[in-house]
Amino acid sequence: MHQYKGKLIIHTGSMFSGKTSSLEKDVKRFKIAGYTTLAFKPVLDTRNNTSEIITHDKTSLEATLIKDIGEIIKLCNENNPDVVAIDEVQFLDGGIENIVSGIRALLEKEITIVLAGLDIDFSGQPFEVVKELMPLADYLTKHHAVCVKCGTDAWVSHRKTKDRERVVIGASKEYEPLCRKCFLEEKRIEEAIVNKNQVSFEDLKK
Ligand SMILES: [Zn+2]
Can you tell me the distance from the alpha carbon of 125 to that of 129, in angstroms, rounded to the nearest whole number? Predict the structure, then answer.
């Protein structure tokens, strides 16, 4: 009983790859095994303004909405959980160094931590927090959506709209999973149209 002490479990990958569903499954299993659990979700994701982790496939788990790692540590000190789950960890605030040292401190207190988060943004650049946490994991799973162009394992969540900000909350209307080959092909086509017509990327997406 309670063999999982101070383990870091990370589910990463692109959007629609099943990261959050896997996190929820882990938490449900820990609950069945008698562990006390706390689930958190950064408040930035306002798609569903409730205290639930809601996945694209609509399964759900109750989670406390928080802003930064400080709030998580405070609530852990107050509630003393066996297991802590954090969904969308790439949106967690509080500074990368504080997040990493906070996670380490919780692990050293023998709290098991389950994280779900995007490894790269829509342009293929790593999310720093996830990049720093991945090597610390005891168990690391990279999940894959299906590339909508060719059907192989997807690598990135390609943004179909013209927004260039790093974080645009959305679902299948704004993003599509693509493999690296199809993503690069898409970029080449976009650049060719921009060069040929002397239009900006923003014009192209209108
Ligand atoms: Zn593809």
Answer: 12
1-143 architecture in CATH? 3-Layer(aba) Sandwich (3.40)
Separation of 105 CA from ligand 1 center, angstroms? 40
- The reply to whether 146-206 shares the fold of 1-143 is no
Q: Judge whether residue 57 has pLDDT over 80.
A: no
CA of residue 147 to ligand 1 center, whole Å: 5
Spell out the domain ranges in the chain: 1-143, 146-206
CA of 69 to the centre of ligand 1 (A): 36
**pLDDT value at residue 204:** 60
Report H helices in 126-200: 128-133, 180-197
Cα–chain center distance at 192: 32
Instruction: Classify strands 37-42 and 83-86 as parallel, antiparallel or unpaired.
Output: parallel
Q: Among all residues, which ones are annotated catalytic?
A: 88
The yes or no reply on domain 146-206 and CATH 3.40.50.1000 is no
Full-model pTM: 0.86
pLDDT (tens digit, 9 = 90+) per residue, 105-155?
A: 999 999 999 999 999 999 899 999 999 999 999 999 999 999 999 999 999
